[in-house]
Amino acid sequence: MSKAKSPKLIPLSPVPLYNQLKEILRGQILDGTWPPLSRMPSENELGQRFDVSRITVRQALNDLQKEGLIFKIHGKGTFVAKPKAFQNVSTLQGLAESLGRQGYEVINRLISFKTVAASSQVAQRLKIKEGSPVSEIKRLRLVNREPVSLEVTWLPLDIGQQLEKADLVTRDIFLILENDCGYNLGHAELAIDAILAESELTRLLKIEEGSPIMRIERLTHTDDGTPIDYEYLYYRGDAFQYRLRIDRHRTDSGEKS
Amino acid sequence: MSKAKSPKLIPLSPVPLYNQLKEILRGQILDGTWPPLSRMPSENELGQRFDVSRITVRQALNDLQKEGLIFKIHGKGTFVAKPKAFQNVSTLQGLAESLGRQGYEVINRLISFKTVAASSQVAQRLKIKEGSPVSEIKRLRLVNREPVSLEVTWLPLDIGQQLEKADLVTRDIFLILENDCGYNLGHAELAIDAILAESELTRLLKIEEGSPIMRIERLTHTDDGTPIDYEYLYYRGDAFQYRLRIDRHRTDSGEKS
Question: Where is each HTH gntR-type domain found (chains A, B) (predicted)?
Fold first, then answer.
C-alpha cells in the first residue's frame, strides 16, 4: 500500500484535534488513500503520524465507526468499510429491478409466508377490516450474498394467494404483481426514518444489537389508486443508501396539494 | 387513563412471546390506547396482565425503545414517545418552509459560520478547486424548541458572503438564496442513510451516544444546473421522518436515464 499523505493538524485551532483528525481520515477514506477493506494503521501508528494522543485517535476512529466508514475486527484491527450499495428511488422500483442494473446480484431468502389477522395499522393502510386475513411475507434480501434488508410485506389475501406459487427467491414482488398477476402499479407513499436494530434484525441481518437501520414504510397503490402492497423495509445502515432527485417545482401532475 | 384492552398471547405459537407482546403494545401505542407522553405500566404490571415473565416484558420494551416508540427515564418509568415530526420531500423545500405549513415553529441556532478550505469531497460536489475557500455554516434546527437536526452547509465563497448579513435564525437558506440573492433553485440530489450519533451530534442534539441518526447528503443546483449548496443534514431518528411519494413511471422530464 502506498504511504498516505499526512496533512498536519492545527493544535491551536478552535476545532478539537480529534475532529480535525476525523475529517482528514474521512477525506482519505473517501478519496481512496485507504481503499475499501484495507486495514487502517494502528492507534499507535496514527498517534505518531499525526502527533496526537491515543485517546484523540480513538475518539476520531470511534466517530468514523459510528458513521459506518470503518469497522473493527477484534484482535485484527480497524478496516475500511465497503462503499454502501445504493438504490435510486426517483422512480418506484423493487430492489432487484434497481440494483440488477448496477450489476449487483439480488437474492431473497423467504423467512415466512403466512396468513395473519390484519393489525389495525395494516387494515387501515390496505383499507380492509381489522382482524380480517391478510398474507404476510417476510424476506431477507441478500445483495452479492450479504444480507442487506429485511422486508415485511402485507397483501390482501386474494393477491397473496396468487403469490404463493411465485418465485420469491429471485423476483421482486412488484414485478410478480405486474407481470404474473396483471396489476398496473401506480404510486407509493414512503416514510423514511432511522432506528436501532432489535433482536430479530440483529439475528437475520447478522449485525450487532444497536446497529443503525434505515427503515422505510411503503404503501404501494395500483394505477387506479387502490392500496395493494404495504411494507416495512429494514436496511442495514452500514451497507445501504437511498438516492433520489427532488425538484424545486414539480412539473408532473402526480402530487395532489 | 382508561384501562387498555389486553389481547391474549398465544403460548404455543411459533412467534416468540416477546414478539407477540411487542406487536400488541406497538398496536396499542399507534392506535392511541397509550397516548403520547403517557407512562406505560411497569414491567411487573405488564407481566401480570399478559401472564409472561419479566424477561419477556423487558425484551419487548427493549425492542420498542430501539424502534423509538417508547423511552425510559431513570427512576420514573417508561413513556410513550411523541409521534415523529415529518417533512414531505416530494418537492425540494427547506425545513421551515415545509414544517411551517404544518404549524410547527422552526428556529435555528447558528453554531458557526466560517470560511474553510474546501475538502476534496466539497470541492468535487461544488465543482471548485480543492483547498479553495468556501463558506461553512453549521446550524442546529429546533422544531417547537427541541433540537431536531444539525445541518452543515458549504457554499461557494461569493454566495456565502451574501448570506453573512441574512437572518439565519428564522429563515431557510433556500429562501434566502432565492429571495435575497436572486438565484432560482432547480433540483437537488439526495443520499439518505442511517448512522449512529457520535460526539458532536450527541452534544448538540441532546441525545445519547449511539442514538439513531437519519443522515441526508444533499447537493442543490440552480435551475441552470450549477451546484450551489452542498449539505449534510443529521436528523434525530427518534424525532423525525421523511415522507415522499414515488411514481412507478415518471411523467415529467426531470430524470435523465
Answer: 15-83
Q: Indicate yes or no: CB of B212 within 8 angstroms of CB of A198.
A: no
A198: DSSP letter: -
Distance from CA of B109 to the nearest CA of A (A): 18
Gap between the Cα atoms of A40 and A59, Å rounded: 15
Q: Domain A85-243 classified CATH 3.40.1410.10?
A: yes
d(C-alpha B196, C-alpha A237), whole Å: 9
CA A229 to chain centre: 20
Say whether B188 and A245 touch across the interface (CB within 8 A): yes
Question: Could you read off the pLDDT of B71-112 as tens digits, one per residue?
Answer: 999 899 999 999 999 998 888 999 998 898 888 899 999 999
The kind and range of the H/E element at B27 are helix B17-30
With an 8 Å Cβ cutoff, are B194 and A212 in contact?
yes
Q: Does B18 touch chain A (CB under 8 A)?
A: yes
CATH number of A17-80: 1.10.10.10
Strand, coil or helix: what is B136? strand
Q: Which residues of B touch A252 (CB under 8 A)?
A: 247, 250-252
Identify all chain A residues contacting B184, using CB atoms and an 8 Å cutoff. Answer: 248
Q: Taking CB atoms and an 8 Å cutoff, what residues of chain A touch B91?
A: 246-250, 255
Nearest-angstrom CA–CA distance, A58 and A193? 29
Q: Which of B89, B125, B108 is nearest to B214 (CA)?
A: B89
8 Å CB contact of A243 and B31 = no
From the list B72, B32, B242, the residue with the least C-alpha distance to B148 is B242
Could you list the pLDDT tens digit for every one of the 257 residues in chain A?
A: 444 456 788 887 878 899 999 999 999 998 889 999 999 999 999 999 999 999 999 999 999 999 999 999 988 999 999 989 999 888 899 999 889 888 899 999 999 999 999 998 999 999 999 999 999 999 999 998 999 999 999 999 999 999 998 999 999 999 999 999 999 999 999 999 999 998 899 999 999 989 999 999 999 999 999 999 999 999 999 999 999 999 988 665 444 33
Residue B194 has its nearest CB partner, among A30, A214, A247, at: A214
Q: Would you list the domain boundaries of chain A? A: 17-80, 85-243
